[in-house]
Amino acid sequence: xxxxxxxxxxxxxxxETGNVVPAARHGFLGDVLExxxxxxxxxxxxxxxxxxxxxxxxxxxxxxxxxxTVKESYFFRAPQQFAAIERHVLPRIxxxxxxxxxRNRVIRAWSAACARGxxxxxxxxxxxxxxxxxxxxxxxxGTDLDSEALDTARRGLYGERAVAHVPPAQxxxxxxxxxxxFQLAPELSRRIAFRPLNLARPPYDLLGxxxxxxxxxxxxxxxxxxxxxxxxxxxxxxVAAGLADEGALFLGASETFWQIQGHLAPHDLGNCFCYRHRxxxxxxxxxxxxxxxxxAPPPPPPPAPTSPRPVSEASAPSAVPAAEPAPPSGDHGLLxxxxxxxxxxxxxxxxxxxxIQERLAxxxxxxxxxxxxxxxxxxxxxxxxxxxxxxxxxxxxxxRDLRGEPEEAITSYRAALYLDPAxxxxxxxxxDSLRRGGHRDRADQEYRQVLAALASGxxxxxxxxxxxxxxxxxxxxxxxRDALRGRAG
Length: 489
Ligand SMILES: C[S@@+](CC[C@H](N)C(=O)[O-])C[C@H]1O[C@@H](n2cnc3c(N)ncnc32)[C@H](O)[C@@H]1O
Prior knowledge:
Elements lengths: L4 H13 L8 H14 L5 H9 L6 H9 L10 H20 L7 E6 L6 H12 L7 E8 L2 H9 L1 E2 L1 H4 L4 H7 E4 L2 E4 L1 H4 L2 E5 L18 E6 L8 H12 L2 E9 L12 E5 L4 E5 L2 H4 L27 E2 L20 H15 L8 H13 L3 H14 L4 H13 L3 H14 L4 H13 L3 H17 L16 H12 L5
Parallel strand pairs: 1-2, 1-7, 2-6, 7-8, 9-11
Antiparallel strand pairs: 3-5, 4-5, 9-10
Helix pairs in contact: 1-2, 1-3, 2-3, 14-15, 14-16, 15-16, 16-17, 17-18, 18-19, 19-20
The structure holds S-adenosylmethionine.
The site of S-adenosylmethionine has 25 residues, from helix 6.
């Protein structure tokens, strides 16, 4: 007997787009199936899935993609990353270019899942206002799987929700009011090219082979999180092939280097990370292909045994990674309603009914019994099923701590806290790791946040973590106070 239509539909979506639809979203998927079958006059969901899978519904994938992918985006999302581009990334690129004989004075940026152009628009504002870029050309390419989103991006019209985090001065300077909407200034829009590109199908035409000019800046934000892990790795590898030698890749704030293998190294920019090509010596053993302009290396030896370590580039330790502001709310009719439904659904990705919590509990028990390799396997399975499960990232951090990989532990704790900021025990572990690593100021900010969460009643723990030696509320509070008084051991 063939599996239910909704399961087959989820599988097709995964094959076609790379997006994993967790079981918690299958109810929503069932509604989409019903609606689309009815709209096309098909006898039911089963017939719809058969025809979609058999290529019998031309143009239907475009429709499906815009219904089932999450489009949440807004201008200046994760502002700490844009500040770091201005402060750290551009100076480095321009500095390297100044030494370049050919004096190439064009900065190229690629937003690799640009939704409706909120990210490309933010970059355009940043570039247009940057003092550093005076006398330089810049080009921005935005790509996405969703052609409807790209059409909207080309129009450059945004509702209040999308521009809610644009500082007022920049809103006045770079947007024209159009009724209830805001239009990105044409002098910016015309410098942005939008093209369809399915990240799940590497290699990408956009990168056009080794002689095509590479991108100095690539934003691949908030899309890997929807992919299954092997695909995440393939996509990062394929995208990295288009990154210039001194270029920087940014992932979403919750997507950290568990997706990155040996070919890129994380760089700590203070309150966010970017990723760069490893220096040639360190790249030996990397599974990555050749960098642009470099001869192809001999077949690679097995991947390097160690994980990448962040290299600090920030001039001074800076504030705690700013949590992204809550997505602005607003109303744009039926489409927005549908999208909210998808987004709401996505925000429940963690509320998995299908054994995720049980598997987390098993992983926690294995960690408590010091069976680290088995715990790692179980965590891989959980992250494969749901890359956005905060508990799995939290346990991955715990595992990394036990393995003596402090930087990787910090990254995983941060990923967990991005996905669920209320996990006070994990924030405490993050604070402890930062303190041990000598980042006293950042650690203290985390301790204070734990205390604030406990005081506000927002603090939350994950029952599956019960086997682990984590402090309860009182213990956590005591540890934070001791640490802040400088007495903790
Ligand atoms: C949550 S939005 C992120 C937008 C923006 N990068 C940001 O961080 O605000 C995810 C975007 O990824 C796109 N997407 C999903 N699967 C994709 C794929 N296989 N290839 C390219 N884009 C994809 C979706 O259409 C959507 O626009």
